Amino acid sequence: MKRKLPSLATLECFEAVIRHGLVTRAAEDLNLTQSAVSRQVSNLEAFVQQPLFVRRRKRLMPTDAALRYLRSVSPLLDTLETETLRLMSSSTENQVLTLGLLPTFGSRWLMPRLGGFTEHHHDIQLNILTGLTFEDFKRANVDVAVAYGNGNFAGYRSFHLMNETIQPVISPDHYANPDVLSYEHLQMSTRPSAWPDWLAAQKIEAMPSKIGPTMGHFTMMIEAVRSGLGVAVLPSMYVRDDLKAGRLLAPFGPAVTSHNGYYLISPDHLANSKKVAAFKDWLLIEAQKKKAD
Amino acid sequence: MKRKLPSLATLECFEAVIRHGLVTRAAEDLNLTQSAVSRQVSNLEAFVQQPLFVRRRKRLMPTDAALRYLRSVSPLLDTLETETLRLMSSSTENQVLTLGLLPTFGSRWLMPRLGGFTEHHHDIQLNILTGLTFEDFKRANVDVAVAYGNGNFAGYRSFHLMNETIQPVISPDHYANPDVLSYEHLQMSTRPSAWPDWLAAQKIEAMPSKIGPTMGHFTMMIEAVRSGLGVAVLPSMYVRDDLKAGRLLAPFGPAVTSHNGYYLISPDHLANSKKVAAFKDWLLIEAQKKKAD
DNA sequence: CATTATCATGATTAATACTCATGAAGTGAG
DNA sequence: CTCACTTCATGAGTATTAATCATGATAATG
After folding, report:
1. Does the pLDDT at position A93 exceed 60?
2. Contact yes or no for A30 and B69 at CB 8 A
3. Are residues B234 and B176 located together in one domain of the fold?
4. B12 has a pLDDT exceeding 60
5. CA B72 from chain center: how many Å?
């Protein structure tokens, strides 16, 4: 009995559009044309017989239903790939290293550098999965991952890569009052302590006039801020371009170093394997280079 | 970053061939030609760069690696369908009933009868998942399932459908000694108490000369018996055709009713929903008809 | 305002899925 | 043993889906 399923090409395009926030970026990532990706998104909407995106200002904003669907489907695709590569690696000499990455960190920091690793390790095939949390990576049985946290990952060895600085940003069109508490405070679900940490560092003890909605996706949050929904405390790394271009302002005070940071993690029983050690050694050197920048 | 994945059509053909044990049967089930299914199996072997089947006597016997791969992949496909239909059902008036079935029971008993249900309930769309155990069905969040067991399924309402009778069978080409203990006793992982139950019912307390390998798949077990690997205690329902055709013999004694049987199960919180009640009412009547046969 | 970026869509091309036909080998009955 | 039927693999061809190129409308930026 055949199942009722969209094609994998369709699902991967859908996923990439949500992850990148732009059809054009998604297409680059998948090595397809913008047209192909646009069609696949429309194909999926036709297949499920409902719109999955709100079209707004030449951008596609995913519906809640679309985000829920992606959250359940994306790990399935990751596991399917893992199992397929596992099957293949049982017949080849090459080693497969399953690497878990946070979407924005992965696309903005690591992917541009990853060619350096693959160039020097042709015997190690990378299988890259994306996840938002440590739990995601555990569930997917990754060999290594770049996770965000405080360094304590139960059952995993962790190696500090870099800190994260965070700062509140606002849209220039909506900036009127220098008092950060006068705005709605938008929340990042992956950064629950961002607001308290930043306010504490400024010695501000009062409460904001309003706590805003919670979102899990940086690109969407940046769009919400630019639309004037409120102020969000975001990692400096992710808003650097928008600040430089003047699309966002950071007028409320300096960026502060968060309690959490980025760590390379690996299950205890794998942390000393040759492939994990090779990747760790390479990545720690890259992170040192970034600190020297 | 695009994943390295075989197509869904490929995976479904691979799955169907293993489930049915014959390319031709798999093709019928999928409403494709034998040729298409044969090609897809070869496509997958080429994709993963290893044979997934041993070709023997016009049949395809899956390798261990193939079975492992299927066990991990099949539930992923089930869940992907469930989530897709869930997404679709949030926008339609139709109800989706997610039904879990045991592979052999499903294909041999229920599927031939299922048209009777869909004919009378056009408002209920069926989403059919296969699993081997109660745990499989729990994990997949089915609305209802036909499970094998003793009637105790924690957190689930159960309705008895039918008993199962089991009996030891052997290949006519290898039958020489009427003492069942003189043969290797092949084991079914889904029927761990089959041998003890049957022997106890015959008042046989001695042990067999050899305990044979354990398998989880009826079709493969039947093939192993026919090849002369030993004797297996199998459900009468599944060996009826082979016995009638003389491909198997049951010379050691009568079939006995197992302690376990087939039950329709549904999570407690769903058991009184309209869709589950509709399916339950229909299936209990079908099971009564079978008893009257 | 001019230039660039973005998405949707018509027309066309490329790739994959599938069918029909055929042949070789296996199975079972007489 | 012969014969009829079944089964799988494969060549050739057809059908369907995926993807590209080109274009236009709209949005964003300097």
Report:
1. no
2. no
3. yes
4. yes
5. 16
Q: What is the overall mean pLDDT for chain B?
A: 84
CA distances for B284 relative to A72, B191, B290, angstroms: 34, 24, 10
Please, which pLDDT band fits residue B23 given cuts at 50, 70 and 90?
Answer: very high
pLDDT digits (tens, 9 = 90+) for B250-272: 888 888 888 888 899 998 877 77
Instruction: Let me know whether B264 and B245 are in one domain.
Output: no
The reply to whether A137 and A176 lie within a common domain is no
> Which of B1, B48, B111 is facing A88, going by the closest CB pair?
B48
CA distance A59 to A223: 10
Do residues A266 and A254 share a domain? no
> Does a structural domain hold residue B198?
yes
What residue numbers bound the domain in which B17 lies? Answer: 8-62
Tell me: do A158 and A33 sit in the same domain. no
- How far apart are alpha carbons A123 and B5 in whole angstroms? 20
Supply the CATH number for residue A251's domain.
3.40.190.10
Neighbours of A6 (CB within 10 A): 20
**A154 and A269 share one domain:** yes
Count of CB contacts below 8 A, A vs B? 103
Residues of A in contact with B5 (CB under 8 A): 8, 77, 80-81, 84
Q: According to the model, what pLDDT value does residue A210 have?
A: 75
Which of A12, A83, A87 is the best residue to mutate to test the B interface, defined by the most B CB atoms within 10 Å of its own CB?
A87
The answer to whether the Cβ–Cβ distance between A90 and B50 falls below 8 Å is: yes
Q: Is the sign of the CA dihedral A210, A213, A218, A223 positive or negative?
A: negative
Comparing CA positions, the residue from A71, A84, A48 lying closest to residue A139 is: A71
Residue B133 CB neighbour total at 10 angstroms: 15
Whether B108 sits with its Cβ under 7 A from any strand C atom: the answer reads no
pLDDT of A10 reads 95
pLDDT tens readout for residues A32-51: 999 999 999 999 999 998 88
* Å between CA of B128 and C1' of C30: 44
- Element (DSSP H or E) covering residue B9: helix B8-20
pLDDT, tens only, A198-212 = 888 888 887 777 777
Candidates B3, B14, B78, partner chain A, best to mutate (most A CBs within 10 A): B3
Is the pLDDT confidence value at B69 over 80? yes
Q: Tell me, yes or no, whether A136 and A172 share the same domain.
A: no
Q: What's the full length of chain A, in residues?
A: 293
Cα separation, A186 vs A149, in Å, equals 20
| pLDDT at site B38 | 94
Residues of chain B found within 8 Å of residue A84, distances taken between Cβ atoms: 4-6, 48, 69, 73
Partners of A65 on chain B (C-beta within 8 Å) are 87, 90-91
Interface residues on A facing B, Cβ-Cβ cutoff 8 A: 1-8, 12, 29-31, 48-50, 65, 68-69, 72-73, 76-81, 83-85, 87-88, 90-92, 111, 127-128
**Residue B69 covered by a domain:** no
Q: Which residues contact B57 (CB under 8 A, 6 or more apart)?
A: none
ipTM of the complex as predicted: 0.57
Q: CB–CB of A1 and B76 under 8 A?
A: no
Domain count, chain B: 3
Task: Yes or no: say if B136 and B75 are a contact pair by the CB < 8 Å rule.
Answer: yes
Quick check: B275 pLDDT over 90? no
pLDDT level of residue B292 (50, 70, 90 thresholds): low
